[in-house]
C-alpha cells in the first residue's frame, strides 16, 4: 500500500504476442476495455498516494490524530515491499486506516479518490462496499457514515462512472448491530444503496448466531445480498447455511465442497473473483490454479474484481490482463467476460440496459477498428 508497491507482473507468452502484440498491448487493451467492479472495499481501495496525503494531513493536526496517522503511515511503509500476505495479515491493517476515515470530511476525500481512481482505470460501473462504523471521538455514527458515503458519491467529480453502495455487515457483529445496519440499508436504498454484504475476518464470528436473521430480513425487504463465502477451508456447514438465504452473489467462494459447488453452479449464483487478492493472501496457490479457471470452463457467471486494490496494488485492468495471460483469453473473450458481468449487478434493469448499450457501442468501435486496421 505504497506508491512503491509492486503491481502484479503480467508475463508474456506466445499467445500474448500473437493476440495483443506485447504485454504492453495487452495492458493497453485491458485499460481501454469498459469494466465493472463489484467487489471493492472502500477502505481497502484507497489509492496509496491519497492515503499518505490524508495521513500526513492528520499528522500535522492534534496529537491524537497524529498517532492515528503514524499508524497508517507505518502500514504504508511496512507492506510496501511485501509480495504476499497471509489472509490473517489483512484485517489488522484496517484499524489504522479506520483511524483516518472517521469523519465526513475524510470519508468524502477517500470516496472521491477511490471513485476517480477506478474511473481512470476504465471502470464504468462500480458497487463500492463498506461497513458503517461509530467513532465517539468525532461523533460519527453508522447512519452518518452511510450518509457521508452517499453524499460523496453524489458530489464526486468523476463523470464517466456510475457508483452504487453496498452496506456491509461484519461477521463479528451482534444480531442487534446487524439488524440496525439492515434498517439503515433499507432506509437509504432509494438514495444509492443497492445491497447488503457479509464480510470480515473469516476466522471470526458465527453466521447462524450473528448476522443470519438480519440478512434473511434484508432479502425479504427486497435488498440484494452478497456474501463472502468459503474464503478458508473447513467451513462446509456454514457455507450451506449461507446458501440457504439465497444470496444474489458470492465473494471469493474459494474452498467449496462438492455439494456446495454443485448448488452454486446449479443455481447460477455469480461469483466475485479476486485473483491477485487470493494469490497474495495465499488462499490460492497460483493464478494458474485459481478457481476462476473451472468457472470459465463451465461458463459459470463470474466477475473479475479487485477486493482491496489499495493494498494489493492491482487495478482491475491488471486483473483482466492476468486472466488473459494465464488462461489464453482473446480480446473478444475478455470483452465477453466484462459484458456478461452486467447481468450480475444489483442495479435495476434500466441501468443494465444502459450499460449494455455502452458496452455494445464500445465493441462496435473497437472491433471494427481492428478489422479495418
List the helices and strands and how they pair.
Elements: H1 14-20, H2 23-32, E1 35-41, H3 48-59, H4 63-79, H5 87-98, H6 104-120, E2 123-130, H7 142-155, E3 162-170, H8 175-187, E4 193-199, H9 212-220, E5 224-229, H10 236-243, E6 249-252, H11 258-267, E7 271-273, H12 275-280, H13 292-297, E8 302-304, H14 309-312, H15 316-327, H16 331-340, H17 349-372
Parallel strand pairs: 1-2, 2-3, 3-4, 4-5, 5-6, 6-7, 7-8
Structure explained in plain terms:
Helices cover 51% and strands 13% of the residues. The protein is α/β, with parallel strands linked by helices and 373 residues long. It has a single domain, classed as Alpha-Beta Barrel (TIM Barrel), CATH 3.20.20.140. The chain has an eight-stranded parallel sheet. Helix 3 packs antiparallel against helix 4 and helix 6 crosses helix 7. The longest helix is centred in the C-terminal third of the chain and has 24 residues. It is globular, with a radius of gyration of 20 Å. The N terminus is likely disordered.
**Strand ordering within the main sheet:** 1-2-3-4-5-6-7-8
- What is the count of structural domains? 1
> What would CATH call the architecture?
Alpha-Beta Barrel
Number of beta-strand segments: 8
Question: What is the CATH homology-level superfamily?
Answer: Metal-dependent hydrolases
Rg for CA atoms: 20 Å
Please give the share of residues in helix: 40-55%
* CATH hierarchy, class: Alpha Beta
Average pLDDT, to the nearest integer?
A: 91
* Multimer state: single chain
Shape descriptor reads globular
Residue fraction in strands: 5-15%
Distance separating the two termini: 40 Å
Question: What are the secondary-structure elements, in order, as H or E?
Answer: HHEHHHHEHEHEHEHEHEHHEHHHH
* Structural class by SSE content: alpha/beta
Major sheet description:
8 strands, parallel
Low-confidence stretches: 1-5, 78-82
Amino acid at each position: 500500500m505504497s506508491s512503491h508497491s509492486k503491481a502484479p507482473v503480467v508475463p508474456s507468452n506466445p499467445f500474448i504476442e500473437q493476440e495483443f502484440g506485447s504485454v504492453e498491448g495487452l495492458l493497453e487493451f485491458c485499460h481501454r476495455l469498459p469494466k465493472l467492479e463489484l467487489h471493492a472495499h472502500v477502505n481497502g481501495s484507497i489509492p496509496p498516494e491519497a492515503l499518505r496525503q490524508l495521513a500526513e494531513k492528520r499528522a500535522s493536526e492534534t496529537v491524537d490524530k497524529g498517532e492515528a496517522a503514524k499508524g497508517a503511515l507505518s502500514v504504508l511503509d511496512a507492506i510496501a515491499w511485501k509480495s504476499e500476505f497471509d489472509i490473517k495479515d489483512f484485517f489488522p491493517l484496517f484499524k489504522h486506516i479506520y483511524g483516518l476515515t472517521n469523519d465526513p470530511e475524510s470519508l468524502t476525500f477517500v470516496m472521491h479518490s477511490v471513485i476517480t481512481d477506478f474511473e481512470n482505470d476504465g471502470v464504468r460501473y462500480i458497487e463500492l462496499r463498506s461497513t458503517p462504523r461509530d467513532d465517539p471521538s468525532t461523533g460519527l455514527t453508522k447512519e452518518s457514515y452511510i450518509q457521508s458515503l452517499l453524499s460523496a458519491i453524489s458530489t464526486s467529480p468523476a463523470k464517466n462512472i456510475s457508483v452504487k453502495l453496498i452496506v456491509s455487515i461484519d461477521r463479528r457483529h451482534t444480531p442487534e448491530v446487524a439488524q440496525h445496519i439492515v434498517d439503515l440499508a433499507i432506509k437509504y436504498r432509494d438514495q444509492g444503496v443497492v445491497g447488503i454484504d457479509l464480510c470480515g475476518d473469516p476466522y471470526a464470528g458465527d453466521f447462524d448466531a450473528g448476522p443470519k436473521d438480519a440478512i434473511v430480513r434484508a432479502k425479504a425487504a427486497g435488498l440484494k445480498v452478497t456474501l463472502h463465502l468459503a474464503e478458508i477451508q473447513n467451513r462446509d456447514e456454514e457455507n450451506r447455511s449461507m446458501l440457504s438465504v439465497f444470496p444474489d452473489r458470492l465473494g471469493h467462494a474459494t474452498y467449496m465442497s462438492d455439494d456446495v459447488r454443485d448448488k452454486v453452479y446449479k443455481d447460477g449464483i455469480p461469483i466475485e473473483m479476486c485473483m491477485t487478492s487470493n494469490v497474495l493472501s495465499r488462499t490460492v496457490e497460483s493464478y494458474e490454479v485459481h478457481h476462476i479457471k473451472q468457472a470459465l470452463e463451465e461458463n459459470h457467471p463470474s466477475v473479475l474484481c479487485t477486493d482491496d486494490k489499495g493494498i494489493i496494488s492491482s487495478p482491475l485492468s491488471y486483473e483482466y490482463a492476468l486472466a488473459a495471460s494465464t488462461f489464453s483469453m482473446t480480446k473478444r473473450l475478455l470483452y465477453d467476460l466484462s459484458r456478461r458481468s452486467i447481468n450480475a449487478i444489483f442495479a435495476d434493469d434500466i441501468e443494465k440496459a444502459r450499460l449494455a448499450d455502452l458496452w455494445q457501442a464500445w465493441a462496435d468501435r473497437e472491433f471494427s477498428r481492428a478489422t479495418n486496421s
